[in-house]
Specification:
The complex is a heterodimer of chains A (about 425) and B (about 280). Chain A contains 14 helices and 15 strands. Chain A is α/β, with parallel strands linked by helices. Chain B is mainly α and about 280 residues long. The longest helix of chain B has about 50 residues. In chain B, helix 4 packs antiparallel against helix 9. The chains are: A alpha/beta (about 425), B mainly alpha (about 280).
Chain lengths: ~425, ~280
């Protein structure tokens, strides 16, 4: 069995008489994205601070690659913690330093790199996080979102093996929230670090997480994959997940994956087995290609705009939609057969290209002040029956996708 | 009946313990305060040793130079102003006192010895505490409550090396230099009031300074300045660094109280240590 990278064994932490963590047991595995979810004040940040060594448990043990930290030598602890980077909830940027100086600080103080090399690495990170114009500004002169990106750039500047993100999307608008999550997912794949997130962004964090840990009543009540979370039956789910999902629908116009499955299940139960339904898969191509440089925000704004329009258009004929991952939307049309859906789609594409595409492009391009961004919008239809596995219908729809529009933002467009 | 007896016994015991608490409370308070002070003294000493231990590490020079500028160079104007008027007042007062005995020729020696041995180091230390010490506490305190110090830990940067050590080193460099400047300008102030305003012979004033000030007076003044530098910088850095652990307040209020506490404690310790150092050097 694989040895966890980090393991908590009966970790208890108290502040005075208040118990924050009560015999917490958890495992975090290497190369994965693990998300800790829980209500505010439930001790999620305290858990992260134990991992980075800012706090020590009152009882229990924390193991790093199977070895208790308490039994490590000073040099072993230093070597272990040197692999970890931390992005604070409040950013913790040095307010007397510019964005450039903040990002360069770990390299200047902990390495012997030459000035030119530090400059090259810092500027690369600044460009990746779309902060080029703010490089020589002070944190107090930046918006909350830009401060967050500066903190993210600083956390990643040393190419750490483990990165802890303490609510990285707090205070961001829905577009930038998804852009930051998408950026974390993309960097995690690119640099293969282990990411540990504390987040409330349900279900968005499911798209990028390999494992979910649920903290409830000072204990870990669930550890597993996002799919396993769907079948998890616990009061935690009612209190935390449902309340957050309702908020998600209000913000984006799309159902959560769980709500989507529930609606689909009800629809399928009501109809005879031989009756068919149709499903449309919309995708935004080119997103991963542009994500390494610029365009996270533009892509997320485009997918949000598309989501709102899709919900409006197909909602009127009983359709319902969900986001499948960072660049896909699935729309279920339970009362339409293939020929009807093709006709509906024809109208949709016509209206979309004539009226909607332009406005989505304008708002998306405003968020892409860096290099050029080009996004291709694809759509594919497939027919299924209540007895058919929905995933196979989705796969079929994806294989039949065609381009329905194209967004392009010129370099430096505002 | 038995219950009543129990109740009576209980209330009697409560009374006894209450009067006992009342009797022991002052002792407990004194004991607790002393233990707390000893603890703080021990922690502050370890804090100082650890900060000084990092003073000669690599990449420290530029930080020390920057702090010398903030603590030393930027305090020069206020030190010059205070020293000038201190010297002038000393010259004025001593002239009027000595003229009654026909000993106005000793004005120079009185002004210079007062400044070099006592007023120079003490007033310089108090002025730097007010100007730079409070700023040090506030700066470190804000860095502490906004998690910037925690951020340094996570970046594997020792906060004592990065934040505290350059400030203490810079204070040790700046205090003697500013004290020397205070002494010099103070003596010039005495010259202005004694010679230029009250008509004392310039040669007599200069001779009096040269004849009575010996090298050990200057050395003792510099030793005092170094002792004050260590005290002021340690107290101010310590108060800011542990602002989050104050029991009487939190957040911004804790930083405000830490700053007040740093200035008051530094001033008191300057005067107390002045007596101790003077008695040791005499």
């Amino acid at each position: 069995m694989e040895t966890p990278l980090i393991e908590f064994k009966d970790v208890t932490k108290r502040f005075g008489r208040r118990t924050v963590l009560d015999r917490v047991n958890l495992q975090i595995y290497e190369g994965e994205v693990t998300t800790i979810i829980g209500l505010s004040g439930s001790g999620k940040s305290v858990m992260l601070k134990h991992i980075i060594g800012l706090m020590k448990p009152d009882e229990g043990a924390i193991l790093f690659r199977g070895k208790p930290i308490s039994s490590m030598t000073k040099s072993e602890i230093t070597a272990a913690f040197a692999q970890i980077s931390y992005m604070f909830q409040g950013n913790a940027l040095f307010d007397s330093m510019t964005v450039y100086e903040n990002i360069a600080l770990p390299l200047r103080e902990s390495t012997n790199l030459k000035k030119a090399e530090i400059d090259r690495r810092v500027m690369a990170r600044i460009e990746q996080t779309e902060l080029t114009e703010s490089a020589h500004r002070y944190p107090s002169e930046l918006s909350g979102g830009m401060q967050k990106r500066a903190a993210l750039a600083r956390a990643l500047i040393t190419d750490p093996k483990i990165v802890l993100f303490d609510e990285p999307t707090t205070g961001q608008d829905p577009v930038r929230k998804n852009a930051i999550l998408s950026m974390i997912a993309q960097y995690q794949k690119k640099f293969n670090f282990t990411a540990i997130l504390v987040s409330h962004e349900i279900p968005d964090v499911y798209f990028i997480s390999n494992r979910i840990l649920s903290l409830y009543n000072h204990q870990i009540v669930f550890q597993g994959t996002p799919e396993e979370m769907e079948n998890f039956d616990h009061p935690f789910k009612e209190e935390v997940i449902h309340s957050l999902e309702v908020l998600q629908k209000e913000l984006t116009g799309l159902y959560s994956k769980r709500q989507f499955e529930m609606l689909n299940h009800l629809q399928m139960k009501r109809r005879p087995e031989e009756e068919s339904y149709c499903l449309v898969v919309f995708s935004l191509q080119g997103l991963n290609g542009i994500a390494s440089s610029v365009g996270h925000d533009a892509a997320q704004e485009a997918i949000r705009g598309m989501g709102l329009y899709i919900d409006k258009h197909f909602g009127a004929i009983g359709g319902f939609s969900t986001r499948r991952n960072t660049n896909e939307i699935i729309t279920m049309l339970p009362y339409s057969n293939l020929s009807e859906t093709e006709s509906i789609m024809k109208n949709f594409v016509h209206d979309f290209q004539k009226q909607i595409l332009q406005s989505i492009q304008e708002s998306a391009c405003k968020l892409s002040p860096g290099g050029p961004v080009e996004l291709m919008i694809m759509a594919g239809i497939a027919q299924g029956r209540s007895t058919t596995d929905i995933d196979s219908v989705v796969t079929l729809a994806k294989s039949q996708q065609k381009e329905i529009g194209r967004l392009s933002c010129a370099a430096g467009s505002e | 009946m038995a219950q009543n007896e129990n109740n009576q016994h209980g209330s009697q015991a409560d009374d006894e313990s209450g009067s006992g608490t009342l009797l022991t409370r002052p002792f407990a308070f004194v004991g607790e305060t002393v233990v707390r002070w000893v603890n703080v003294l021990g922690k502050a000493t370890i804090f100082l040793i650890m900060a000084l231990g990092n003073a000669l590490r690599a990449k420290q020079f530029s930080k020390v130079v920057k702090q010398v500028y903030y603590i030393g160079a930027r305090s020069m104007t206020i030190i010059m102003l205070v020293s000038l008027f201190t010297g002038m007042v000393l010259g004025l007062q001593s002239y009027h006192a000595l003229v009654q005995f026909g000993a106005q020729g000793a004005v120079g020696s009185l002004v210079s010895l007062s400044l070099i041995m006592e007023l120079g180091p003490v007033l310089t230390a108090i002025m730097i505490t007010a100007r730079a010490g409070s700023a040090i506490t506030a700066e470190i305190g804000i860095q502490r409550i906004s998690e910037q110090i925690d951020a340094l830990h996570t970046m594997q940067i020792n906060p004592l090396r990065y934040l505290v050590s350059p400030k203490i080193t810079a204070a040790i460099i700046s205090f003697p230099l500013l004290t020397a400047m205070f002494d010099l300008i103070g003596i010039a102030g005495g010259y202005i009031s004694g010679v230029l305003l009250l008509g004392l012979n310039p040669g007599v004033y200069s001779h009096s300074v040269q004849a009575y000030v010996v090298m050990s007076d200057i050395t003792n003044g510099i030793v005092k300045a170094i002792v004050f530098a260590v005290i002021v910088s340690t107290v101010c850095c310590y108060q800011g660094y542990f602002a989050h652990m104050r029991r009487d307040s939190h957040g911004a209020q804790a930083v405000g109280l830490a700053t007040t506490s740093a200035v008051v404690t530094s001033c008191v310790l300057i005067l107390v240590s002045d007596y101790v150092v003077t008695s040791l050097l005499m």
